[in-house]
Amino acid sequence: MYSKGLILIVEDELLIAEHISRVLTSVGYTSTICVTNVEDAISVIENENPQMVLTDIMLLGKQTGIDLGNLLHQKYQIPFIYITSHSGIDVITKAKFTHPNAYLVKPFKREDLLIAMELALFNSSTESRLADQYLLVKDGRATAQVPYEEILWLEADGNYTLLHTETQKKRLLRFVITDLHQQLPENDFIRIHRSFVVNRKKIMEFASGHVVIKNIKLPVGRTYRENLMELIK
Question: With contact defined as beta carbons under 8 Å apart, do 198 and 190 qualify?
Fold first, then answer.
């Protein structure tokens, strides 16, 4: 059983938002807030610290639910569920890189919503978060766990990314570097160049035009230099 704190509902179809709120209230979630866009959602998150966020993907305004999902995963570490009528492979692929705790496709039943809530709360429990210290990668026909602490840097190779690790084993992954970067902890992995993302804990030397990891110089792009300097400080 989980405590039932504030639930934020980000949905621009007001009837759906109200329906979700009524269902949650009926089972003991005593507080819900409904907003229609990402900007208002961020305001609620920063002022009210909700226990859970349910968000549609297509929202009013320039930012989408996927933009919000990235913030919830990387910055706020708040569990969230996507609720959307979009189930195409492109949408699902973008959504999964934000690490949602559950995914509901409209129209959904009351039971579907409650099950998704229970699963999302379980998946975001302390035990689950502590176990989430690995990047899952394909290794032949198997799936391998690469601990974050063993990753040195990522190197773009067209539509692929080369993963450099402490064991000196290189893995060619079928992801573009931007998508792979989104799967890693934001505070530990820094974009330093359009072709490089580095583990900040592995940086041995830092200069204006490069960083050194394991005696290897990696270039720092001009557009990334200022941000890198701030993070290093």
Answer: yes
In the chain, alpha helices (H): 14-26, 38-48, 65-71, 89-96, 110-123, 126-131, 177-181, 222-232
Domain with residues 134-232, CATH architecture:
Beta Barrel (2.40)
| Of 128, 120, 83, residue with least CA distance to 103 | 83
Q: pLDDT of 53-72, one tens digit each?
A: 999 999 988 899 999 999 99
Distant-in-sequence contacts of 72-77, Cβ < 8 A, 24+ apart: 72/45, 72/98, 73/98, 73/99, 74/182, 74/185, 74/186, 75/186, 76/45, 77/129
Q: Where are the domains of the chain?
A: 7-129, 134-232
| Structure tokens belonging to residue 51 | 């226990």
Which residue's structure tokens are 């379980």? 122
Residue type, 68: L
Res 130: pLDDT: 47
Identify the residue whose tokens are 């959504």.
Answer: 95
Dihedrals phi, psi of 117, to nearest 5 degrees: -60, -45
Tell me what pLDDT residue 21 has.
95
Nearest-CA neighbor of 55 among 93, 7, 23? 7
Q: What average pLDDT does range 28-37 have in this prediction?
A: 92
Q: Which fold does the domain 7-129 belong to in CATH?
A: Rossmann fold (3.40.50)
Phi, psi at 9, each rounded to 5°? -110, 120
Provide the 3-class DSSP secondary structure of residue 80.
strand
